[in-house]
Structure formats: structure tokens, C-alpha cells
Amino acid sequence: xxxPSIEVSGLSKRYVLEHESRHDNLRDSLHHTxxxxxRRARWGTSFEKExxxxxxxxxxxxxxxxxxxxxxxxxxxxxxxxxILSRITEPTAGRITLRGRVASLLEVGTGFHPELSxxxxxxxxxxxxxxxxxEIRRKFDEIVAFxxxxxxxxTPVKRYSSGMYVRLAFAVAAHLEPEILxxxxxxxxxxxxxxxxxxxxxQDVARNEGRTVLFVSHNLNAVRQLxxxxxFLANGCVQAAGPVGRMLDLYMQTAAPASLSVPAPxxxxxxxxxxxxxxxxxxxxxxxxxxxxxxxxxARVGFRLARPYEKFVVALGLVSTDGVAVQTAWxxxxxxxxxxxxxxxxxxxxxxxxxxxxxxxxxxxxxxIQQLEIARLDITGENPCGYYPITAGVGIVLNSMTTSRxxx
Amino acid sequence: MTxxxxxxxxxxxxxxxxxxxxxxxxxxxxxxxxxxxxxRDIKVRYKQAVLGIAWAVVQPAVQTLLLTFxxxxxxxxPAGDLPYPLIxxxxxxxxxxxxxAFNGAGxxxxxxxxxxxxxxxxxxxxxxxxxxxxLVDFGIMLVLTVPIVVIFAGLPGWQILLxxxxxxxxxxxxxxxxxxxxxxxxxFRDFRFITPFILQIGMFVTPVGYRTDSLPxxxxxxxxxxxxxxxxxxxxxxxxxxxxxxxxxxxxxVLTAIFLLITGVWYFRRTERQFADII
Lengths: 408, 279
Hints:
The structure holds two protein chains of two kinds. Chain A is of the alpha/beta class. Helices cover 26% and strands 37% of the residues of chain A. In chain A, the strands form four sheets. In chain A, strands 11, 13, 14, 15, 17, 18 and 19 form a seven-stranded mixed β-sheet that branches. In chain A, strands 5-6-7-3-8-9 form a six-stranded mixed β-sheet, sandwiched between helices. Classes of the chains: A alpha/beta, B mainly alpha.
């Protein structure tokens, strides 16, 4: 067996959070410095510093040609790990050995300058990602063809549509030829067709050219499609590592919080009506963050009325990641007295695998009161045979959920 | 038995506190990126400015008139056998070079924060490549100034050959000071307010609007400012030695430049590894 292309042992990263320190402007800063000096003179202490371990004793190794997905909830340390691997920031402890040329793509279009033309940006971005001038010139036509922007090569990219911009940026990155490619959450942008093209390109890179890829994404389907193994991070530690299917299952079991955080309502809303709680769960009542295709689930929306309302309606919408409202369901209008209520929406349709945002809306007498993007739900798995799941982008499915409401 | 491990050239080891090892080699390897960043800055500068090159003319012209009025007419500084505006113009030339180089280097890291938090490269590239814009501006202004000098003061002598050395001196001082400011700005944003302040005072304690050889009593005090040596020197080069060159001043400027550069690089390198975390 050849030497692993990535070897990580005992890797830790500590951040020091200094409370009350935002040196953004002169006044704040002077104020802060004065207070700090005063405190130090008086009590001999400075502001309390809080340590935060973004990564703790992480060890793993990756063989050449492996495509490894890194999964975990927000704040699990995925991005920090990639930043250390790409040498943007230093580890606090531990050791990493990388064998081969490394290219990292933590953002699409790093260093793009809006005033420069597409052509100029290809050179600039290529150089930033570590390509030489000769290399860029050699691949120039290929990049342009991949991005489908031939006609706009000499237009400043500030006039590009966001789709064109992303395509161009990804095209440059896709033509890097490193032995180790580190990719963070870059497929969340762009239209679906282009996302597929990018996934295909990355698959090519890994399978046919034997490169090593580390891939972070919240798009679990992309991870499933692309990766053979996965590393599951939680709170900065490696929770498990192994075949991608098993890791995703494990992640799904542990990923969901019992209830989702709902932003505090404004004073205005407090005086009329607002959403108080939100939970997504299986039909058996277990919290759920990632559903399988075709698996039924339900959303419980708690809301409070400060005064009685006529024709009060609670609505729930699902918006796919590309911004298309896929499904909307609402309670039949009802005259409600003041008090706390819970509305339950049961999903019975099979939606296509993908990421969705849940939006809750409250209205009365056809007047909107509150609208809130409240949660994210991933639907994952193979699209089943026998029937067609609803594809995102097909249109709006109206009122297909089973609904019920009760007063608490 | 001892085994010595030969490190594969394609192998990269990342360890806490060990980023330095390949630093200077990396800096060389990334020289193309430095070139691209410089090229970007130049391109953007002349693309965005509607007045473009005209701007490089209008600004010094107005400043020349103003300084001639203040120092020549109001303060009645002696001009020798030269037209006063010429003295001012030849002083403004290096001063502008320093100002824009110092400003550029000082703001370079914060201006490129999106790069610093997303890609690895030796960060020294950023302030170094920011000097290019200053140099191009200087080039344009120089081309416009030389004919004026020739018309009013005659052809410059052999002294003009030393001009590149004084330009280099100005750039080294600007870079050294800029490295300090830019590294400090990453941590304390208020340091960016210090730059204009320094430049405003500098304009008057540097012999931009007057010649030092007409102030023998003040010469030594003025020489403490390294830019005095630079400005004197450039004027001396352009006017064919018709203004004096105070050699101790130039020597001190060279020493200060080296000192600033070394300490600037030292501080920059010391804080560099935290840039991505705090920028």
C-alpha cells in the first residue's frame, strides 16, 4: 500500500474569544483600551478570555485517490479543518503530512475583481489558486468552454449574472490539477444543471485521475454521490469514520435538535401574534433533520395570539435550495381566541432529494402578520423506483399536507 | 541503528509554529502571484478613474501651485537661481511616490482580507505587490516632469543616473513603515487613521516645498527624517546638482530604511500566522 496522501495526527485548534473586543473603529477602540488599562491598573486583570477548541485531537489518514466527505453540523469544525489543511491558519497542536500538490477551494471566485473582465479574472483567479501563467494559458480555452461565457469574456464581471459569475469561478477551480483537492461547500451555488456538471467534473477528477479529494458540503446527496468514505465530526472531534453510507446514517440519527430555535419576536409582533416554537419530527415523534426520500414527517409550529383573531391562518412552505417554492400548505381559516396554539403539518408527499428551507407564515383576514424562515430540512437517498418524487422547480404543490390544530 | 528520513520534496508537513520553514522559498515560488496582484491593482486603478492619467497630472499641478504660494511667496524661502515651482515640483515627485507606496502597503492586508481568509500564500506578497501602483504613478509623473525640468533648468547631468537608487530608497522606507502599519491594522483597525496623520505632518517636515541647503541651521534636525534624504536626493538628481545634497542625511536615510525594513518584516512575520483568524 502506498503512503497516505493526507495524514493528520492529534490536530487541535484553539481560538481565543476575547469578549467585548471589536476594534472596528477608533472611538470604540480607544474606549476599550482605556477601560482595559483602567481595569488592569485597578484589579490587575484584563477582560475575560474564553477559549474555544474548534478542533480537538483529530486524527485520520486518506489514501491517494480517496474521495472523503466531511460531515457534521454547523460548528463541528469542518471549515476549521479545511482551513488548516489549506495552510490559511495554523494548528495549535498536532501534525499534518500532505503528499502532493494541494489546491483548496474554500470559496468560489476568491479574488475575483468586479472591475476586471472575465478573461482577466481567469488569470488572476488561476494565479491565486496556485496555477502558473503557462498553465492557465494552456487551459484557457477549456475553462472558457466549461463556463459557457465565451461571448462575455471581455465584459467586466460586475455585469455578469450571478450564474455566469459562479460558472466562471468554478470553471477556473475545476481545471486545477492538484494531487489533493480540498473543497468547501461550493456547490451550494449555481443552478442545478451546473451543479450536476460540477459534481460530474469532480467525480472525473477523483475516479479517473486518481486524485485525492476532501469535500465538505451540507448537501448530503452530493456527499453520497461523490464520496466513498466520510469523516463525521462533532464538536471538533472525529465522531466516526468509514463508508459514506454508514456515516450519513449515523449523522442523520444524531443530527436533529429536539426543537429548533425561533428568533425572538419584535415588540409589534408580541402584541398581535407570533411563532413561539418549531419542531420537525418523524411520525413516531423523534426529532429529524434529514429525511429519507418518501419518508413521512411532520412539523409542529407553536404560536401565540395576544388577542382574538378572525380567519386566522397558519401556513407552512417548503422552498428548495435554488429558491423555488415547492410546496405550500395551510390550516383552514378559523376564528381563534387569544392563547397558545400548536399547528401540526404532516408531510405525505415524496419530495425529491435535496435541501429545503421551511417557511412559516401567520395571517388573519388575508393580512400577513409574520413570515419566518424557520428551519432547514435535508431530504436524502436514492430517488425510488415505481413513482416519481416531486422534483424541485416543477411548480407549487398546494395544500397537500394533512393539518391539525389544538389549543395548548 | 539510526535511520535518517529523507523528506520527499512533494511532502508538506504542517505543524504548530513551524510555518516558517519554507517561507522564503514559498515567497519566491509565489512571485507570479505577486505580479498578478500588482497587475490587478494597476489595471483597476486606471480603469475606475474616469480622469485616468489626467488625475496624475492635475493633483501635483495644484499642489505645486499651492506649495509655491505658501513657501515661496508667503514664507519667502530662497529659491537660488531656480524658479520656485521647479523646486516644489521636484520635491513633490518623490513625496508622491512615498505617499502612495506607504498608503498602498499600509492598507494592503485589510484591502485583500477576502484573499487572506480563503487562500494560502506568503502574506508578504500583498504589501510588496501594492508598491507597483505607486511606481507606475511615479513613472507617469516623472515622464511629465522631465520636460519641464529641461525647459527651466537645462539638461540634467550625470546625477540623473543615481535616481533609481533614491527611488529604491523611497520604496524601502515606504515598505518598512507600511509593513508595520498594515500588520497593526489587521489587529487594530484604528491604525488606518494614523497613516493620513503621519503623511500630513510629513509633508511639512520633509523638504517638499523648500530646499534644505537654504536652511543650514535646520539641516541636521531635518535629516532625522529619512525622507529628507530621499527628497533632497531626487531633487539633486533631477536638477543636475544645482541644489545641495547633504550626505550625512542620505546616509541616515539609508540606515533608517534598512532598520524599518528589518523590523517591519520581523513584526509582520511574527503576527502573520494570526492574520487569517483575526482579519
